[in-house]
Amino acid sequence: MGARRMDGAGSTGGTGGIDPDAIVERLIGWFDRNARDLPWRRTRDPYAIWVSEIMLQQTQVQTVIPYWTRWMARLPGVHELADAPPEVVLKLWEGLGYYSRARNLQRAARCIVDEHGGAFPHESSALLALPGIGPYTAGAIASIAMDRPEPILDGNVMRVLTRLAALEGDPRKGASNRSLWEWASTLVRTAHSTHALGDRRCSRLNQSLMELGATVCTPGARPDCARCPVSDACEARRRGCPERYPELAPRVAITPRFFATAILVHQGRHLLTLRGDTGVNRGFWEFPNWETSASESPERILGDRLGIARDAWSALPDLRHHITRYRMVQRVRLAHASPSPAAMAEAAGRGSWLWASEVEMESLPLTSAHRKLARRLPAWLAESRQLSGAPTGPTLPGQ
Ligand code: SF4
Description:
By secondary structure, the protein is an alpha+beta fold. The protein has helices spanning 20-34, 46-56, 61-74, 78-83, 86-93, 100-116, 124-128, 135-145, 155-165, 174-193, 201-215, 235-238, 298-306, 341-348, 358-363, 368-388, and strands at residues 255-266, 269-274, 285-286, 289-292, 314-315, 319-323, 326-335, 353-356. It contains 16 helices and 8 strands. Strands 1, 2, 3, 4, 5, 6, 7 and 8 form an 8-stranded mixed sheet that branches. α1 (20-34) packs across α10 and α8 packs across α11 (201-215). 38% of the residues are buried. The protein binds iron/sulfur cluster. Iron/sulfur cluster (SF4) is lined by residues 160, 163-164, 216-217, 223, 225, 228, 230-231, 234, 236-237, 242.
């Protein structure tokens, strides 16, 4: 039996006229049979679910699993997170990027301890007042952990609902976005309307939408409509063009950015600098680097900034990585030298510097790109010694 009420499919303000009663049961049943066994699905602890939801923002499930497992082993509850040294929190997050998420987790944990006696608040308004918790995360915690009829709308849910209704317009904006929140709310309240104690229908319904978007109604041209439990209600499938939805605004252009990055080796140690208090990666250590134009010579920049002769540098392979809309190119130069006293004095005025051994670097929080550089360093140094014919470690300046 079809599940459509044909009263506005494809309009910008409606939800495709789909009867919620007809699809909620099928979504819940499908989730029960097909849900992936993920570690945070084995718990109802709001703290554990909150951590998983924050980690999963912008990050694939398979990447998150080991991070979440390590985090929960080291910081198993809100009190441990609130009391942890910030560098421990950043170290556990190292490699996931978007580090403000980790800092907000700790700030929110401290609020929960200070203002809620260490217990997760149940009211949406109290959840939304916590740092780093927006409507999606509040809905996820309330519905998944507490089985409350609160809606969720992340990228996966948005894609499923947009296709089901063939909803036009950018679903992240304006009337389309409001329609989707209303529809998500209708669906979870429909699930709740027939709930019995302990059957967790709100949790299962919301997770079914997330799971369907992640595993069946996937982005691009090939959603697996043959496996979809609500395909007969889907307007985009009926029209033969699910790939048309959602109608997202074009991605912003990628901007290249270039950095001159210095690996300085002195007495078997490497110079690191601590990111200051304002940047996106504050609290992380990295090799000294300065942003340059595409045409500037890294040797000139590094030579001038660090007081080291330009011909002392040897080139290492560039490191390329992406952050949001930026394509970063680290042009890496190696020198067996220490900065001039004047350069060190000036640098000391701008922040902390540290000479770290390879072992010490392993325990410090490093930004992802610089962790990659640190991991490649032993091979580069070995190659550099071979090329120079040096039998042992790096020589000291002046030797
Ligand atoms: Fe997505 Fe296809 Fe299901 Fe429609 S029928 S919701 S396009 S998987």
